[in-house]
Design goal:
The structure is a single chain. The chain is an alpha/beta fold. It has one domain (49-244): Uracil-DNA glycosylase-like domain (Uracil-DNA Glycosylase, subunit E), CATH 3.40.470.10. The chain has helices at 2-7, 24-27, 49-58, 63-71, 78-81, 105-110, 117-127, 160-177, 187-194, 199-202, 220-225, 230-244; strands spanning 88-90, 96-100, 142-146, 181-185, 207-209, 212-217. The longest helix is centred in the last third of the chain and has 18 residues, at 160-177. The chain is elongated.
């Protein structure tokens, strides 16, 4: 009961005898003047993760250093809930670099991009035009990465702030890998590198990213949900093959 009274704010007990509160001023010492309150210091300037990422990425000289730098980047909260850091797969010297969205459950468990059902479909798509991530020659190989190296909770769509803070690393990744062609696989890489979304409208239309030819394509996960779109995906693959052959 006493604890309940205290929680209610009744924290002073009633005495047996009444107190003349009006007469207390004559016997009690005057309260001291309030201490001067120091002026609070100005709040620190908010941290801009994108600016810090840009500075860190600018100092990276090779892909191995880029991997280590991204892995220790502390400002993306996705790392707190991810099992593994997912950097890249395939041959870095490949003519074609594929940029996906973010790791899914299987990718998070294995630490490699595109290894789940969508990744298996991607491997079959590449095989149809005689390309593979494990090909022995750069002409037939691909190099694969994602906009984000950590899995978003529940495979949700990456947020704009998450994309913005990791974009300097992605741009540096493309510069270091130096591919001839960049494939933007899904809406998130189009948002990051083109500033546009709407992959069903953008797909199949050659554009330019960081001074390189780029081709937006639908993500294999979309094809698993919409098998009828495989015809358009096949047309995009043929367009990629023709570009590689100089046709």
């Amino acid at each position: 009961m006493l604890a309940w009274h205290i929680e209610c704010g009744a924290d002073e007990a009633i005495l047996d005898a009444t107190i003349d509160r009006y007469g207390l001023d004559a016997v009690l010492p005057k309260p001291a003047a309030p201490a001067t309150v120091a002026t609070p210091e100005a709040a620190p300037t908010p941290v801009d993760p994108a600016q810090i990422a840009a500075a860190m990425a600018a100092n990276v000289a090779d892909l191995e250093s880029l991997r280590d730098t991204m892995d220790r980047f502390p400002y993306c909260e996705l790392r707190q809930g991810a099992r593994n850091f997912v950097f890249a797969d395939g041959r870095p010297e490949a003519r074609v670099m594929i940029v996906g969205e973010a790791p899914g459950r299987e990718e998070d468990l294995e630490g490699r991009p595109f290894v789940g059902r969508a990744g298996q479909l991607l491997d079959r798509m590449l095989g149809a035009i005689d390309m593979a991530r494990d090909a022995t020659t750069p002409e037939q190989a691909v190099y694969i990465t994602n906009v984000l190296p950590w899995r978003p909770p529940g495979n949700r769509t990456p947020e704009a702030g998450e994309i913005a803070m990791m974009l300097p690393f992605l741009e540096r990744h493309i510069a270091l890998a130096d591919p001839e062609i960049v494939i933007l696989m899904g809406n998130v890489p189009c948002q990051a590198l083109l500033g546009r979304v709407g992959i069903t409208r953008l797909r199949g239309q050659w554009t330019e990213v960081l001074g390189r030819p780029a081709l937006p394509m639908v993500h294999p996960a979309y094809l698993l949900r919409q098998p009828a779109a495989k015809r358009e995906a096949w047309a995009d693959l043929l367009s990629l093959k023709a570009r590689l052959l100089g046709q």
